[in-house]
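User: We ran a pulldown and think these components assemble together. Before we commit to crystallization trials, I'd like a predicted model of the whole complex to look at. Sequences follow.
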Amino acid sequence: MQSPAVHADYAGQRQVDQSVDRLRQRIALCLFAVLVLVLALVPVVSTNATFAFYLMLWIAMATGMNICVGFTGYLPFGYVVFYGAGAYVTGVCYRVIGVPILPSLALAGLAGVLIALLMAPTLRLRGVYFGIVSLGLATIARLIVANLPDEYTGGSMGLILSSANNPLHSFYAMLAVMAAALAIVLWLSRSRTGRQLRAIKDDAVAAACAGIDVPRVRLKAWLLAAVIPALTGGIEAWYTNVVDPEYAFHVLITAKSIIYGMAGGFGTIIGPVVGTIALFGIDHVIWERFPLINLLLLGLVIIALMLFLPRGVIGSLLKWRPQLRRYIA
Amino acid sequence: MLTVRNLVKRFGGLQALKGIDLDVPERSILGVIGMNGSGKTTMLNCINGIYRADGGSIRLDDMELVGRKVHEISALGIRRTFQVPRVFRHLTLLENMDVAQATDRVDAAEREDLAAYWLDKVGLMRLRHNYAEELSGGQQKLVELARVMVARPRLILLDEPFAGVNPELAAMLLEIIGEIPGRHDCSVVLVSHDLTSIYQLSHQIIVMNEGAILTQGNAAAIQSDPAVIEAYLGA
Amino acid sequence: MTLLIIQGLLNGLILGAIYGLVGVGLNIIYGVLRVVNFAHGEFLVLGAYFAWILLQQLGIDPFFALPLAFAVFFVAGYLLYFVLVPRLSRSDDPETSSLLLMFGVSIALGAAMLLAFDADSRSLEVDIEPVFVSFAGISLPTIRLVALGISLVLVLILAGFLYRTQVGKALRAIIMNRDAVAIVGIDAERLSAIAFALGIGLAAATGVIVGMVFPAFGPFMGSDYTLIGFVIIVLGGLGHPIGALAGAMLYGVTEQVAVVFFNPSVATMLGFSLMIATIFIRPSGLMGARQLG
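Assistant: Here's a predicted model for the assembly, 857 residues in total across the polymer chains.
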C-alpha cells in the first residue's frame, strides 16, 4: 500500500516517537522507585512508621480511585465498600475461621473482585446514576454487615486480630500493595487498554464505533480498581489489629481517596501521588494541632480545589504548559 | 457487499425509515442526499448498530448485522464518521489512531506505519503528538477520516464530511475520498448536502425523502429527474 | 396485624410527603442547573438548627420559624449560587465537578454544624394538644398530621408557582431545554440562581418540619436525607419535580410498611434496593422523560 521510501520515513519517525514515550515512562518509573525505596527504609531508620504507613495507604487508595475516575471516568461514591469488605473478610477469616493472615488477605482481595463483579451491571449507568447507585450499594453493604450475627462480625466492638500483630510485616505488605497499584497505573498509561479506557471516557459511542468492546474494557479496569482498596482495608486491619465497624465503611474513606487524588489531578499517574503527599501531610499536621476543625478544613479544601484548581496541581500544570506532557505521565 | 432490505426504524409514533432497500457493491461510492429529517443519519446509525432496526435486514456479504453490537459491527470492517466530529479529545492523534486498530491482526510496526501513512495523508503528521482537543473543527474531521481508514475497513459511512469545511480542505477531502475504493479496497456510503462533491464522487446516488428512497441512479440521472428536482433540488 | 400495616401505610404517606419535599428541592436544582446537590441534607439540618436557635434564643414558635427559614435560606442560596456555580460551567465535566463541589460543601457544613452545636442531638419542642390522634384503633402523633398538612400546602404553593407564574413557567422551560431558553431571551443565569435559592430554601423549610416530626436531629443526619432524596428522585425521575412526590410516596410507604415486619436497617435496605431495581428496569423513573443513552 505504501511505497518503500515512505515506509523508511516512518521508521525514523517512529524511533523518535517511541523515545519520547520511553522518556516519560522512565521519569515516572524513577519517581516511583525512589518513593518505594524511601518508604522501604522508614522502619529501618525510625521507630514510628505510622505516618509512612498511612501515607502509603492513601497513595494506594488515591491511585485506585484514579483508575476509576481518571482512566475509566466513573465517580464511585461507594468506593469504601471494597475497603470495608476487605477489612471484614480479613478479620473474619483470620479471627473467626482461623485462616492465617496472608491467605486471609488474599481472600480479601478476592472478595473485592467478587463485589466488583456483582456491581458490573451498574457500569453502564451514566455518571450521576452510577454515583448514586454506588453510594446506595455501599450503604446496603454497611447495613448488612451491621446486621450480621455478632459472633461473626464482632458487633459494635469490631474484631481484634491480636495474634497477627506484626507492624513490620504489615508495613511491608502495604508497601507491596502501593507499589502494585503504582505499577498498574504505569502499565495502564502505556498500554492499549489504558488508551482505550481514556477513549471510552471521552466518548463511549465513538469508542464502540472504533471497535472497542466498551463493557468488557470497563469491567477489566473496574476489577483492577477494586482489588486495591480491598487489599488495603485488610492490611490496615492487620496493622492496627482492629476491624472497626464505625470506620470500615465510613464515607470519609471515599472522600479522602477522591480529594487526595483530585488535588494532584486524576488522569495523570503522578498526580494522585503528589496530591496525597501534599494533602495527607497537611492533614496530618492539622489533625495533630487542631483536631476539631480538621473535617471543616477538609471540606473547604475540596471546595477550593473544585473552584480554583479542578484539574489538580499536576493537571493544571499540564494545561498551563502543555509541552510538559512529554515528561509527565 | 452490503445488502439492505426493507429497513424499518420507528421512534415512538414516528416512522423514521419506511422500508429501505439498497446495495453497496465492492469498491464503490454510494452518495446519499435528501432533506434534513429524511432519515439519512438514521439509516447510517442502523447500519453500524447505534440504532437497532425494527424490521428488515442488513447483510455484510452473508452476515446479518441487525441485532449485533456496535463494536462487533465495527470489528467486521464497517467504520463511520459523524456530522460533528467525535474525536477522542484527551488522546493524542497517534493515540486516536491506535485505539481504532485494536482489532487489526497485523504486527505493531505495520499498524504504526499505517497510522503514520494516514496522518501524513491528511496533512496532520506534525501534530501527531498534540491532543485532539487542540485541533480546529476542520482538522478534527480529518482526524476522524484518518481514524476510520487506519482500521483497514471494508466499508466506511461518512456523515456530512464536507459540512463546515473550508474550500481548500474540501478539495483535499474530495481527492482522498475519491481514491479510497480503488486504492484501499473499500466502499463508501457518503451522506452530504454538498451536491457538487456528491455528483463528482458517487458511482450511484440515492435520494431519500421522509424515510423512504425516492429514486436512485447515477449523477446525470438524478440531476435531471423531475421528482428529485421538485422534492429536493428546487427548480 | 392489619392495623399495624395500616398505621405503617399512613406513616408512610406522611413521611412520603416530607421526603417528597426533599426530592422536589433536589429535583429543581438538578433539573435547572444539572447540579447534583450533595449538600441538600446538610441545608435541611441547618434549617432545623435555625428554627432551634430561634426557639431557644427568641422564643419563636417553629411554625413561624418555617417561613422565616425559607426566606433566609432563599437569600443565602441565591448568593451562594454566584459563589459556587458559575465556575463549574467552565470545567471539563460540569456534572462530575458539581458532584464533587457539593460533596465538599456537605462535609464543610456538617463539620461547621458539629463545631457550632456539638454532637448532641437536638429537638424542636412543639406543644400540641392533643398529642395523639386516635381513630379506628390507630394512633398517630398529631404533629405528624400537622406536618402532612404543611407539606401538602407547601407542595400546592410550589405547584402554583411552577405552573401559574411567569418565573415558574420559565423554570419548567429550562428544565425541559436549557439552550432553547437562552435563545428565547430569558436570563438563564438569574433563573438558575432563583432555582438554586428555591431548592435551598425548600430544604431549610423541610428541615424545620423534620425537626418537629422526628424526636431528634444532629449535625451528621444530613447525609441520610441526601441519600433518601437521591433515592426518591431516581424513583420519580431525575428532573421531574412532581414525579419526586410520587417516588417519595412509594419509598415512604415501602419503608414504613417494612418496618412493621423487619428492623429499620432492613427497611432502609429495601428502599435502596427498590431504587437500584428502578434504575435498571425503568431508568427514567416513574414519571421522568425518556432520555437517550
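The CA atoms of residues 175 and 181 of chain C lie 9 Å apart. That may be worth checking against your pulldown data before setting up trials.

User: Thanks, that helps.
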